[in-house]
Design a protein that fits this description.
Largest sheet: none
Number of domains: 1
Structural class: mainly alpha
Oligomer: single chain
Low-confidence stretches: none
Order of helices and strands: HHH
Shape: elongated
Amino acid sequence: MRAILDLILLILQLYTWVVIATAIMSWLIAFDVVNFRSDFVRAVWNTLNALTEPVLRPIRNVLPNLGGLDISPVVLLLLIFFLERVIAYYLYPLVIAY
């Protein structure tokens, strides 16, 4: 059972980096630092969006409109950190290691 919890924690940590990469990539595209017309940049952007958009969209629907500011990645990261702490502090100690 600890192996499953470790795998869940690893997936949550990897997804944290995907969310951070998506936020940074959106800034780079918005400020025209990277060329969105490049096939590689477009492929990376589409992959990151495909991974994060299904989770960020419901959060955006709940949050109020703040103009051009999108805080949904911050809310998602806070939720991920909360879930990691719940697993680490409450579920992990209850599992007996063999």
